[in-house]
């Protein structure tokens, strides 16, 4: 029987995940509240899907919205945005919350067939995506990314986010360290820092989750969550590009 692995360190969001699983709103599975730093490759054996920095299950819901079956393998993750967000301290890789290298270690060990990820758009200007793409391409993944806003699916706010897909089945050979440096240099030459824009208002937060009351916790969970409908568009676009027959 297919089971999903959810890694979420925040206790409020972790309980929310359990409630959503019990209600059948996201893929059935287990919630691990440990820091990703403490997760070993062997801990992930036997799981069909793995969702890191799982929040309140947005990626699992997005997969379902796109028609991706619960028993189809995939890894997802939305690394903490604080090191690269314009609202954070802006210290990038020096921030202890920069955990892409730790997640990548698990990816390299398990080699999932598809990896889906998300980050704040400002991370592009700080080189985060350059490092992600180089790491994955060195392991033989074909990687593509796009910046898409929540407003694109009708949400009343912009919420630009960087979305990426890494596919291990695409015809690509691992790249050398020298080639990775060359590609990174070319990307940096054409890199543009995302424009900072204002939006008149964001929607009110009046929703509750059974068993996890608390406005502060809800606000934090919503603030860290992806917009599943946008992620579903990314997933659907990837699925349309897959070879058939």
Description:
By secondary structure, the protein is α/β, with parallel strands linked by helices. The chain is 35% helix and 15% strand. It contains 8 helices and 7 strands. α3 (100-110) links the parallel β4 and β5 (114-120). The two termini are 26 Å apart. The model is unreliable at 186-209 (pLDDT under 50).
Helix/strand layout:
Blueprint: E1 4-7, H1 11-23, E2 29-32, E3 49-52, H2 58-66, E4 74-77, H3 100-110, E5 114-120, H4 122-125, H5 128-138, E6 142-148, E7 161-167, H6 177-189, H7 215-224, H8 228-241
Parallel strand pairs: 1-2, 1-3, 3-4, 4-5
Antiparallel strand pairs: 5-7, 6-7
Helix pairs in contact: 2-8, 5-6
Concise account of the structure shown:
This protein has 8 helices and 7 strands. With 245 residues, the protein is α/β, with parallel strands linked by helices. It has a single domain (55-193, 209-241), classed as Vaccinia Virus protein VP39 (Rossmann fold, 3-Layer(aba) Sandwich), CATH 3.40.50.150.
Supply database-style keywords.
245 residues, alpha/beta, 35% helix, globular
Q: What's the helical proportion of residues?
A: 25-40%
CATH homologous superfamily descriptor: Vaccinia Virus protein VP39
Total of DSSP H or I helical runs spanning 4+ residues? 8
Query: What is the quaternary state of this protein?
Result: single chain
Summarize the main sheet.
7 strands, mixed
CATH architecture: 3-Layer(aba) Sandwich
CATH class category label: Alpha Beta
Query: What is the β-strand count?
Result: 7
Mean pLDDT metric: 80
* Strand residue content: 15-25%
Query: Domains counted in the coordinates: how many?
Result: 1
| Strand ordering within the main sheet | 2-1-3-4-5-7-6
């Amino acid at each position: 029987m297919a089971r999903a692995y959810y890694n979420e360190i925040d206790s409020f969001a972790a309980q929310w995940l359990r409630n959503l699983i019990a209600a059948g709103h996201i893929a059935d599975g287990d919630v691990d509240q440990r820091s990703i730093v403490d997760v070993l490759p062997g801990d992930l054996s036997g799981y069909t899907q793995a969702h890191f920095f799982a929040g309140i299950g947005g990626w699992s819901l997005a997969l379902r919205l796109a028609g991706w079956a619960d028993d189809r393998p995939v890894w997802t993750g939305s690394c903490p945005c604080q090191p690269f967000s314009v609202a954070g301290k802006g210290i990038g890789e020096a921030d202890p919350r920069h955990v892409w290298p730790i997640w990548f270690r698990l990816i390299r060990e398990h080699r999932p067939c598809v990896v889906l990820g998300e980050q704040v758009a400002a991370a592009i200007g700080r080189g985060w995506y350059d490092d992600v793409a180089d790491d994955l391409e060195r392991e033989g993944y074909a990687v593509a990314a796009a910046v898409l806003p929540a407003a694109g699916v009708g949400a009343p706010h912009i919420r630009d986010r960087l979305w990426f897909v890494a596919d291990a089945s695409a015809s690509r050979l691992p790249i050398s360290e020298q080639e990775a440096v060359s590609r990174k240099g070319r990307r940096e030459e054409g890199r543009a820092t995302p424009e900072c824009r204002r939006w008149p208002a964001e929607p009110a937060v009046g929703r509750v989750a059974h068993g996890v009351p608390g406005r502060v916790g809800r606000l934090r969970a919503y603030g860290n969550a992806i917009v599943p409908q946008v992620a579903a568009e990314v997933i659907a676009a990837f699925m349309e590009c897959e070879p058939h027959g």
